[in-house]
């Protein structure tokens, strides 16, 4: 684990042994709609408890993602007939008959009908592909809206709603009207807490970048999360690593680096400086 998370600073992989798992025989998809993020989290936890490892993907998506995807031409209209505030896109890996699983799924979901407002089950392969294409395209949609600030964080699920609420209020004190574009992988708590400049904003949103990063990262630390979830430290987050890791943790990391790379030739300058 130390080597895999070292971002190339401890060595070069010359050989890898892979554990091969059986390929699923089929997949099952569904798209839920909610009136709140808390409802979204509650249903996800129910689904995870019931279906366990069959749940391959669970993506939390905000309403603004649909709005901007329509605005910038990635969608012609919403998948849903009504407006909702939060969505959950799920994919299940199947090793049994799809029809059998669907009957079991519907039986369980019926008992959770007070946990969500609407749900869509794709009626064709094309509709399944459209769901996941939208998930990919929503990343491009916000980039066309104006200047933006991205945050790759992870949080415990029981802290996610409170974090978003507190962070939104603090960020609005810095730049009022900042658009919150928060989406990500609910299964592991990895959230892209992205921020878009306000509509018709006349200032330079990038001027608030450092202050907003500090607000977000401090809150993530307070809520027991991590300021870097999927995308590592690299160069951009070196200062954050120094701030949020203890002296002993950093010292140990440097000792390991020096022992394995005494000449500092492996991806030098990334994660931290040895001097």
From TrEMBL:
Any one Gene Ontology molecular-function term assigned to this protein's record: flavin adenine dinucleotide binding
Q: Which InterPro entries match?
A: FAD-bd_oxidored_4_C, FAD-linked_Oxase-like_C, FAD-oxidored/transferase_4, Vanillyl_alc_oxidase_C-sub2
- Pfam families found in the cross-reference section: FAD-oxidase_C
Q: Which GO terms describe its biological process?
A: respiratory electron transport chain
Asked whether the keyword Flavoprotein is assigned, the reply is: yes
Organism for this UniProt entry: marine metagenome
Identify its protein family.
Belongs to the FAD-binding oxidoreductase/transferase type 4 family.
UniProtKB keywords:
FAD, Flavoprotein
- Annotated FAD-binding oxidoreductase/transferase type 4 C-terminal domain residues: 31-271
Name it: FAD-binding oxidoreductase/transferase type 4 C-terminal domain-containing protein
Requisite cofactors: FAD
